[in-house]
Amino acid sequence: MSRETDDLMDLARRQNPETEEDLEDLALGEDYALNPEYVPMVADALDRGDTERLRDLLGALHPADIADLMGFLSADDREELLPHLDPEALAEILSELDTEIREEILEHVPSATLAKALGEMESDDAADVVDDLEADKRAQVLAAMPDVERAAIENTLAYEDETAGRLMQREVVAAPQFWTVGQTIDHLRRESDELPELFFDVYVVDPAYKPVGAAPVSHLLRSRRETPLAQIMEQVTEIPVDMDQEEVAYIFDKYHLISAPVVEPGGRLVGQITVDDIVGVIQEETEEDILALAGVSDAGRDAGFLGIVKSRLPWLLVNLVTEAVAVTVIGPFQPMIAKIVVLVMLIPIVSSLGGNAGTQALTVAVRAIATKELNAANAMRVIMRELAVGLLNGGAVGLMLGGALYLWQHDWKLSLVVFLAIIANLFVAALGGILAPIVLERFGRDPAVSSSVVVTFMTDFFGFLALLGIAALILL
Amino acid sequence: MSRETDDLMDLARRQNPETEEDLEDLALGEDYALNPEYVPMVADALDRGDTERLRDLLGALHPADIADLMGFLSADDREELLPHLDPEALAEILSELDTEIREEILEHVPSATLAKALGEMESDDAADVVDDLEADKRAQVLAAMPDVERAAIENTLAYEDETAGRLMQREVVAAPQFWTVGQTIDHLRRESDELPELFFDVYVVDPAYKPVGAAPVSHLLRSRRETPLAQIMEQVTEIPVDMDQEEVAYIFDKYHLISAPVVEPGGRLVGQITVDDIVGVIQEETEEDILALAGVSDAGRDAGFLGIVKSRLPWLLVNLVTEAVAVTVIGPFQPMIAKIVVLVMLIPIVSSLGGNAGTQALTVAVRAIATKELNAANAMRVIMRELAVGLLNGGAVGLMLGGALYLWQHDWKLSLVVFLAIIANLFVAALGGILAPIVLERFGRDPAVSSSVVVTFMTDFFGFLALLGIAALILL
């Protein structure tokens, strides 16, 4: 009964969610994701032009949740929502949005509003947004910003996309190595307004502004005032400003870094990268790999209809061409197939099994390369192991299929053909699955992008050849 | 010339790497990954039993790199290497190792050494290691540990695997809400030895030890001593102790958290999770998805030969069964195929294109579900968009294939058959690719694990039916 009463009260509250607290409860599910029911409530308020209700609804959300909400709204609703956001909220939301929606939204935000919002953001986030602007608007927006902020953004944009320079924030806390803990804390209290909002390390620098160590803030807090910084500082891992963001993420993950100093070629400290930026990079990079493995070029959930077609059609056409080449193997065997028609049903099975086994092997290899767990030191051992797995799995699956076929066709020769063809094809799948990524990587190509095409072609071409060739030898 | 001299000097240095600095240069590549050449150097020293050389070689490596090295060595070499590691090094290396290698290594470490090493680790890492031990050894090792440490490990193990309770460290820094910044800093200096090695927030708690806010240490450092904690503290996002680690990672990523308090059902503070643990969780969870999508059950690079077979064979057998069912569609059409043999070459093409288009759609859907970007609020819009993409891509690919076929066979009816079959199949692929993950998720299954099987079956079954059915209608 208590349970039912709860449900009823819950229902009543949802139908008339008046207080701010109620809205906050309603906004997020138990998993902290935006509640699906909340989206039509916002859409409804937008339709009715109910500004007050909208302010309450948005007020119950964290900017990250408003960014999520944007993704669930239709493009029209998104455009209508924009004028209801003040520049500070807009700044935070823009930093959180996926590129596609951000580009779409940026078209509708007036340059003056945008210039104000950019001023609220950290230099790396602001640069990302400016990078998404079209040339005309970019010039307008930058012209409307104060000189210092514009310069910071332009400096950041001078670094290549997806490098440490683009990822870093320029705001760092540095102290000379001869300072004590007390001097450092006094300095921080004095300069409080100039400091980054959050920081985790004070970088200890030499007179040339090169980092010689880092004092974690928790160590500063617990040390006595007279302790020299040099005594509590720890070794730092310097990140070169032109390092690829994937490498940066690897280093953070490997050494469990919280923040790291970014240095110019001469070794001078120019910024810092913090681990919360790295979480985003890791998501981005593995997401790229997952989509590339599935033959989807870079395009997010929020790409428009044509964006999605563009991200998938090229790979289907490549697949069409390679498959058309692979089936030419079948041509010369057509007379035999016309006689032994059951082969028609075996062709797709052999092709499908080969494709699956190849995908298994290549996915494991692609990930091992991405996480630097596969290189020259163990390549030979891994290759031999894959081939052995291919043979064993081929034997097992071949035995199953050959056996089942015998029960149906009572033709041991046909079963033998299938048994041998499956072993051959799963061996080829293993060979292609492990070699394609290794070779592509060696030649500087991204193994996640092209391995699938190569391996599918190999397993179909050799699979058809094995099945029909062995059939010709044994059955004719 | 200078380049050549460099190379020569490089070579000379590598052949006789005497100083510690030289070894450090040699150990890691520019990408901070372990240099492949370093592995045989270690293996060689192990073979020769050259303890001193081994100490130098290992001394040049960070524990995380020694863990990497372990992965590249053969199992025999790993076992030989163990006695050369002291308990502190062993503790750090064990925390870094992949499960498979760790389990293998743990068998060879004496219980007493292990007990000592566990004492050096944080409670969450130590619990992970103990969890990997076999029952007998676990009892021995725990018995050899001091009571307090044993209790901490047992408490952590009482929480389910992959929950916040297992991920958290019990060591936190908390302060009552009526304290000032100065009181807090004095307390930290006094209790320095009892504090966690690194911390990023001081949790402000009420008398019932429930967190009411968090003061970032960088805010403590820059605030005046007399400032009340309540004035600089920020809102906290509490993590329930039984929350799944995937949810925890979602929250950290969404709100850019550096650390978060973990609370018991009553709201009492019991530990904290820091972002560096989350980086590992994100890697783990996306890795699981990537492998599941490729039909590989959980098994890392370092699984033994049989482990790999076990991780892949079941999916191949499932694939065999579904494919065997799908090809039964071909059966009734065999007489037609014997007459129009070119259909044999079209069957694999239709199957392959359908499989690819399905994989594209399902991968995007699986990821959108995993990142909570696809739910009831936008499902209908996403489904309609996928179906439209399927029709358009089907039309484009069908036109290409039909056209090419016409140039070869000069039979417009056959081209029409292929054109229609491809459109139908890519429509089915889109339908299956988007619906399978959504439906599986709705029924509480992991869409990454089983979607591929469902979609491949659908595209093959309906692909064959479309091609041969339409052929029978138009060509016979």
Describe the structure.
Chains A, B: It is a multi-pass membrane protein. Chains A, B: Residues 1-17 have a biased composition (Basic and acidic residues). The structure is a homodimer of 476-residue chains. Chain A is mostly helical and 476 residues long. Chain A has 3 domains: 2-163, MgtE N-terminal fold (Alpha Horseshoe); 174-293, Roll (CBS-domain), CATH 3.10.580; 305-475, Tetracycline Repressor, domain 2 (Orthogonal Bundle). Helix content of chain A is 67%, strand content 6%. Chain A is built from 24 helices and 6 strands. Chain A has helices at residues 2-15, 20-27, 38-48, 51-59, 63-72, 75-81, 87-96, 99-106, 111-120, 123-132, 135-143, 147-158, 164-167, 181-190, 217-222, 229-232, 245-255, 275-293, 305-327, 334-339, 343-370, 379-409, 412-442, 447-475, and strands at residues 174-176, 201-205, 211-216, 239-240, 259-263, 269-274. In chain A, the strands form 2 sheets. A 3-stranded mixed beta sheet of chain A has the order 1-2-3. In chain A, helix 18 (275-293) runs parallel beside helix 24 (447-475) and helix 22 runs antiparallel to helix 23 (412-442). The radius of gyration of chain A is 30 Å and the shape is globular. Chains A and B meet through helix 3, helix 5, helix 14, helix 15 and helix 17 of A and helix 3, helix 5, helix 14, helix 15 and helix 17 of B.
